Amino acid sequence: MIHWLTDPLQNAFMVRALVAAAFIGLACSVVGVFVVLRNLSFIGDGLAHASFAGIVIAFLLKINLYVGGLVVAVVVALGIGSISKRSELSLDTAIGVLFTATFALGVLLMSRARDYESDLQDFLFGNILGVDRLDIALVVALAALVLAVVVALYKELLFSSFDPVMAQASGLPTDFLYYLLLVLIAVTIIVSLQAAGIVLVAALLVTPAATAYQLTTRFRSMMVVSAVVGVGSAIVGLYASYYLNAASGATIVLAATACFFLAMLFSPRRRSVLSAVLASRRAAARAR
Amino acid sequence: MTADDTPSASPTQTADADASHDHTHVSPQRVVAPADHSHAVAPAAPHLHPHEGHVRAAIAPERAQGAPPVVDFEGVCAGYFGRDVLEEVSFAVQRGDFVGIIGPNGSGKSTLLKTIAGIHPIQCGGAEVLGVDPSVVDRRRIGYVPQTESVNWAFPVTVADVVLMGRYGKLGLFRRPSAADRDAVERALVEVGMADRRDSLIGQLSGGQQQRTFVARALVQEPDLMLLDEPIAGVDAASQHAIFTLLEQRNRAGTTIIASTHDLSCVATWFGKVLCLNHHVVAYGPPDEVLTSATLAATFGSHPLLIGDAGLPA
Predict the structure, then answer these.
(1) Residue from the list A169, A213, A287 with its beta carbon closest to the beta carbon of B142
(2) How many angstroms separate the CA atoms of B118 and B139, rounded?
(3) Is the dihedral of CA A246, A248, A249, A252 positive or negative?
(4) Reported ipTM
(5) What are the domain boundaries of chain B?
(6) Second label for A221, Cα 20 to 30 Å away, from A251, B14, B26, B36?
C-alpha cells in the first residue's frame, strides 16, 4: 500500500507535478467559491479560451507562453467587466462575444504559423507531468499571490459578492473589487492551464466549490471544504493518471466530479446546485 | 452611542392588536398626524436627546438658525442607458424628518433613493446629501436598505453574518470585526426581534424576517440618514408594524429616515412628510396636505379603487 503511494515519487517529474497540482487545486478551489456563488462559471471557460490567443502570440514572438496568456486573459477579463457594466448586455453575452473572438484570433494565428509544435497542444488539454522547476516557481508564486489577496480582502469580497448594491451603498469600492475578482480568476486560470488545459480548466474552478456548496451552510466552511476537495482531487487524479497512464488533466477533473456527485448524494439538506443556480438566476432577472 | 439608542422594549412586544392596523379603513383622524408625530410635522422644532452623539450636539445650535438640509435636490435628473427616470426632481429633507416616498411601480422611487445614497449618478441638476455632492458623500453615514430582490439568496450566510456586514464599511480594509462589532450586532438583532434566528440561513427566512435582518444591518451602521427601499413590500402586518415602530424610535433619536412604499395605508400613520413621485415630484409635504384625491390621481394615474379604499379626504 505504502509502495503504491511512494513508488511514483521515485520520479522527479512526479514530485514536481504533485506540488504544482496541489497549489493549482488550492488556488482554483478558493477562487472558485466566489465564481460559483456569483454565477461566474461561464467566465472561467471564457477566459481560458481567450488566453489561447495570447499563448499563440507569445509562441510566435518566442516569449514565455504564460506571460502571453496572462496578459490577454487579464485584458479580456477587464474588457468583459467593463462591457457588462456599461451596456445592457448581460455578462454571459459579453463573455460569449469576447471569448469566441479571442479564441478565433488564436486559431487564425496558429493556422498561419505552420511550424507550431506539440507543446502548443499541451495548452489545450494540459500536461502537468511536463512542468519544470521554473514552472513550479511560477505556479507557487502566483497561487500564493491569489490566496494572499483573498485572505486580505476576505470580508470585502464576501460582502460585495453577497449583495453588490448594499456593499456599494456601505462605502465599499465594489467596482474595484469586481475587477479585482475578475483579474484573480484570470491569473488562477493561467496558473492552472498547465494542469487541465484550456478545455478543462473551468472544471477545476467550479467543481470543488460546487461540491462544497452542497455540503456546507457557512461561507467560511464552504471555502475550507472546497480547498480540501480541490487539493485532494488534484492529488488523487494525478496518481490515477500515473497508474492508468492517462491524461492527467482528465483524471484530476474526473476525480473532482466524483466528489461532486458523492456530495449530491450525501448533501445534508439535499439542495441541488441546479436549483440554487436557477434561484439566483431568477433573482438576478428580477433585479434587472 | 448605540447602547443608549437601543430601546429597552423589543419591537415585537409592541405588535399588539394595532399591528394589523386596518389597511382598508384609514380614518380621517389618522390622516392628520397624531400629536406624538409632531417632531416630524414640524421639523423646525427638533427633538434633542441628551444621549445623542457629539456630532449631532455640535450641529444642534446651527440648526435653529437654519442648518443645511440633510438632502437637498434641485432639478435633478437621473436614468438608465439614456432613459430619464427622474425628471427635474426638487425637494429638501431636514434633519429629523421621516419622509415617505410614494408612487406607482417604475415611477423612480428606487432610483431616487439610489441617487441619494450616491450609488446612482445624477445627469443634471444640483444635489447635496449631508452637505456634500452625493457621489463623494461618506456612505458609512447612510444606512441603505435596498429592495430584497438584489440579494443573492443562495448565499451561505446567516442572519448574524448579514447584520455584521453593516460594520464592514466602518472597519475599513484588512481589519477583522471585533467583540464590540459583534455586541452591536447582538443589540440590533434584539432590537428587530431576530435574536432567536441569528444562526438561520438568510435564504430560509420569511419576507418579514429578511426585511428585519436588513433593517438591523442598517442599524449597526449607526447612520445619520436611513434610506429604505420598499421596507414593507411582501411583509406581514406584524412585521410591518415592528419595522415602522423601530424606525420611529430611531427617528425620534435623531436619525433622518426616507422610505419608499406603494402601500398607501401606512403613509398617513407613520410618515411626517410624503413625497408623491411619478418621475417628477407631484406633491411634497405633510400627509394631511398632500394626500388628496387630486394629487393621488396625478401620482398614480387613475386608481379610484385604491383611493376609495384608503378612505382619504376628497
Answers:
(1) A169
(2) 8
(3) positive
(4) 0.79
(5) 2-7+36-147+226-310
(6) A251
Tell me the C-alpha distance between A143 and B297, whole Å: 61
Q: pLDDT tens per residue, chain A (288 residues)?
A: 688 888 888 888 899 999 999 999 999 999 999 999 988 888 888 888 888 889 888 888 888 888 899 999 999 888 888 877 776 677 778 788 888 888 898 888 888 776 665 566 777 777 888 888 888 898 899 899 999 999 999 999 999 999 888 888 888 888 899 999 999 999 999 989 888 888 889 999 999 999 999 999 899 999 999 999 999 999 999 999 999 988 888 999 999 999 999 998 887 655 555 565 556 666 666 655
Stated pTM of the model: 0.78
Of B138, B142, B168, the CB nearest to A172: B168
Dist CA A231 CA B167 (whole Å): 34
Chain B positions touching A213 (Cβ under 8 A) are 156
Domain spans of chain A, in order of start: 12-283
**Is the CB of residue A90 less than 8 Å from the CB of residue A284?**
no
**Domain A12-283 adopts which CATH fold?**
ABC transporter involved in vitamin B12 uptake, BtuC (1.10.3470)
- Find, in chain B, the residue whose alpha carbon is nearest to that of A162: B152
Number of helices (H), then strands (E), belonging to chain B: the values are 14, 9
Q: Flag if A170 and B165 touch (Cβ within 8 Å).
A: yes
Closest Cβ opposite residue A170 in set B140, B153, B173: B140
A-chain CB neighbours of B161 within 8 Å are: 218-219
CB contact under 8 A, B221 and A170: yes
For B244, the grid coordinates are 415602522
What are A199's strand-pairing partners? none
Q: Which amino acid type is present at position B138? A: D
Q: What ranges in B118-206 are assigned the alpha helix state H?
A: 159-164, 168-171, 179-191
Could you tell me the fold of the domain covering B2-7+36-147+226-310?
Rossmann fold (3.40.50)
Enumerate the residues of chain B whose CB falls inside 8 A of the CB of residue A287: 149-150
